């Protein structure tokens, strides 16, 4: 997607055997990239959210395992790298999905062939993700067009939570891909962007993306969404998912569940956009089974931003001594999800709906 009129992917390999990724911790005020030259670099990039978003975490994990195989192609080294990368972020299933796929390929090959195989497969996973996300965009754009037909003469108002745009994936993204596709097709629309405390991925990353694409948008406080729905100012909600159970429960950034409840109460369609790599066919009950990452409390007690002099600074929000807790995700039960938007089509948030689209994976 576009940054200063130039097309970027979020991550890409170099001929020298290193990998480069956009450093998302610096956005929106600074655009820089970071070189990943070894396993440790990939683990750190995932853990510190230099890269974030379920699809991109998976691709970064694959490249991290490739970097490890280049340094030491032995079975034991690959297993150790797999374990370290998988532990970097526990909630998003794409990470383990990509790591398991690459590990199986490497362990079945002679050690001398593993480096080339690893980088080739990591690149294939990246390309597949970009194609899947573009297809999600096509599938979801039809829903936005239908909403536009129901409300002629004004833009379609869409609410989204967190960042599920191209920065969460290799390209296009999940929840924002339908918005980009519809906007490029000339559908008038406007996006309500939840700030998404505590890391503010909406206010920083989603707003950054939408501005680069020229999509009309407004940043709102996280708790404003219900008010907007009550007053008819939201036509539909589209969010992403870091893990989706086989019955259609979805795990997404903390606060998603509350948006789904508000949408249900006000009759607003609530859609979840996700690639098939985000479906965890081993899990049924998302609330009971999905591991929820708890992050550093300082993300709640402190905030970063740009000062008047242009410098980026970090300030404390809470009184000294006040404890904080910081759960990264929550689970929205399938009963609150209007439909799932995938690369193969739109389906009911149910086991039957997912199996109909993905009989080969179920």
Quickly describe the structure.
The mean pLDDT is 96. This protein has a 7-stranded mixed beta sheet with strand order 8-7-6-9-12-17-18, sandwiched between helices. A 4-stranded mixed beta sheet has the order 13-10-11-16, covered by helices on one side. A 3-stranded antiparallel beta sheet has the order 3-4-5.
Keywords:
single chain, 362 residues, alpha/beta, Four Helix Bundle (Hemerythrin (Met), subunit A), Rossmann fold, 2 domains, seven-stranded mixed β-sheet, 12 helices, 18 strands, globular
How does this structure look, described?
- With 362 residues, the protein is of the alpha/beta class.
- Helices cover 40% and strands 19% of the residues.
- The chain has 12 helices and 18 strands.
- It is globular, with a radius of gyration of 20 Å.
- The mean pLDDT is 96.
């Amino acid at each position: 997607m576009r940054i200063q009129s130039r097309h970027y992917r979020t991550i890409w390999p170099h001929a020298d055997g290193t990998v480069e990724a956009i450093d998302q911790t610096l956005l929106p005020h600074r655009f820089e990239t970071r070189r990943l030259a070894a396993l440790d670099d990939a683990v750190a990039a995932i853990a510190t959210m230099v890269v974030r978003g379920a699809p991109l975490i998976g691709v970064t994990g694959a490249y991290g395992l490739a970097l490890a195989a280049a340094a030491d192609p032995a079975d034991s080294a690959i297993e150790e790298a797999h374990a370290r990368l998988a532990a970097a972020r526990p909630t998003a299933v794409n990470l383990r999905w990509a790591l398991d796929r690459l590990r199986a390929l490497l362990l079945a090959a002679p050690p001398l062939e593993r480096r080339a195989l690893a980088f080739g497969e990591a690149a294939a996973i990246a390309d597949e993700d970009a194609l899947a996300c573009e297809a999600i965009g096509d599938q979801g754009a039809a829903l936005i067009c239908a909403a536009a037909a129901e409300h002629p003469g004004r833009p379609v108002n869409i609410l989204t939570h967190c960042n599920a745009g191209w920065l969460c994936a290799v390209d296009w993204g999940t929840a924002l891909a339908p918005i980009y596709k519809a906007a490029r097709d000339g559908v008038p629309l406007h996006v309500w962007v939840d700030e998404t405390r505590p890391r503010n991925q909406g206010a920083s990353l989603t707003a950054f993306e939408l501005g680069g694409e020229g999509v009309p948008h407004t940043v709102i406080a996280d708790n404003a969404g219900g008010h907007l729905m009550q007053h008819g100012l939201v036509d539909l909600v589209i969010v992403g998912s870091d893990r989706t159970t086989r019955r259609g429960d979805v795990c997404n950034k903390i606060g998603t569940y509350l948006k789904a409840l508000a949408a249900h109460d006000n009759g607003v369609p609530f859609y979840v956009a996700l690639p098939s790599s985000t479906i965890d066919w081993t899990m049924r009950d998302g609330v009971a089974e999905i591991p929820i990452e708890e992050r550093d409390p300082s993300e709640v007690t402190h905030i970063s931003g740009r000062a008047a002099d242009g410098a980026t600074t970090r300030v404390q929000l809470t009184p000294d001594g006040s404890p904080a807790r910081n759960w990264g995700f929550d689970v929205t039960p399938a009963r609150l999800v209007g439909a799932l938007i995938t690369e193969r089509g739109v389906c009911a948030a149910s086991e039957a709906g997912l199996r109909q689209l993905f009989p080969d994976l179920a």
